[in-house]
Amino acid sequence: MSAPSSEPRAVRPLRITLLTTAGAAVAYGVLGVALTVMSGETNPWPGVSLLLVAQAVALAGAVGAGLAWRRALQSLETPEHLPGIAAGVRGLLSLLLRIHGALLILGVTVWMIARPDAWLAILACAAVAAQLLAVLRFLRGPAASASYT
């Protein structure tokens, strides 16, 4: 995937962050719907709720990256603002990383206490939702490592 010709190299990491987090939000939504339809359980919430948390965190990352990308494109005439914009996205991703980790641990703990019979669905969905932690950790680097010259 190549960057559009009107997009400078300096804002490419922000676009990548936007597309990756938006794609993750869509993927978690599709997984949640598929789990609900195919589970056959009357109450699929233990697994689905963990995927919804991941989807909400990915969506928050996409919104933040999208706003930063738009701001970066608007401030290309003053490139001294670009490092601050990228640092803001990096800070947002770090915050979302901690929030998602904490919510995932809390969700697994609560569901294991409330529905111990659904332990397999809880752990399987937690493992899938935990992949967002790796994605956010990976994206923290590119969002702030752009060349601003």
TrEMBL record:
Can you tell me where the transmembrane regions are? 16-38, 50-70, 91-113, 119-139
- Keyword annotations from UniProtKB, A to Z: Membrane, Transmembrane, Transmembrane helix
User: What's the protein called, per UniProt?
Assistant: Uncharacterized protein
